[in-house]
Write a sequence for this structure.
DNA sequence: CTAGAACCTGACACCAATGTCAGAATCAAG
DNA sequence: CTTGATTCTGACATTGGTGTCAGGTTCTAG
């Protein structure tokens, strides 16, 4: 599929998709004329990338991580190096803290919302 | 307490604390010489602010939200306006989506980490 | 062939919190 | 009083993903 369709299907701007490619997170075939042609698996990959961004990973880490992920395209997934595993373990801990923070913030919001409702 | 101690106790830089004040999120008495003097409740407040930042709220929303929060200083908490409640409800939904994303990302990381461990 | 839609590259701008630095003033202990 | 630690203000830089625009090329339906 073309970049426009991928953008629509993922909700990610074309700008960002091109950026992902430049960072090495996303690849695409090219038509003879130079237009990008994406495989079906790109949809899942883009969504994964977005999730990882939302989790606070920088593109560099994502680049290292992606080849180790079991992807929908069934490609042979690489095994993470010890260094990468250490990094990811740290990221995992950070994500855990993030989730805890978010739950607290949600509770805070709920308190305020509830207080306003019953007034 | 002074800004340095508050920074150490919260893990937030002095720079950020001054920024919070300028944005109207944090207040402080002043010594005759102009140095900031914080109450004990400032510690909790700063931590809350950080959590809310982590939850993706901008400082403007936080400013509106803070007076409605039941604070440790026991100040009379204001009641949120309907408009604010609507905003916060939207934020709450966003936070829910964020948490779901984070859990997925954490699972992704776990898969990669586990795959590397047993190899 | 042609017109309009879609795509290409490259460059500049933005956001919002934070880092950092400089130069001056204040504070607290000896 | 002195001195070293702390704080003050203000300004500029950074970050990293994204928005946006310009000028040109490619694609595709009629």
């Amino acid at each position: 599929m073309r970049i426009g369709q991928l953008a629509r299907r993922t909700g990610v701007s074309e700008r960002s998709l091109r950026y992902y490619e430049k960072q090495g997170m996303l690849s695409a075939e090219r038509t003879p004329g130079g237009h990008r042609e994406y495989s079906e698996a790109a949809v899942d990959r883009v969504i994964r990338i977005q999730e990882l961004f939302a989790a606070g990973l920088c593109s560099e880490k994502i680049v290292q991580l992606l080849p180790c992920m079991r992807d929908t395209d069934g490609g042979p997934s690489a095994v993470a190096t010890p260094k990468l595993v250490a990094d990811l373990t740290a990221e995992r801990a950070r994500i855990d803290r993030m989730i805890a923070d978010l739950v607290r913030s949600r509770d805070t919001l709920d308190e305020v919302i509830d207080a306003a409702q019953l007034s």
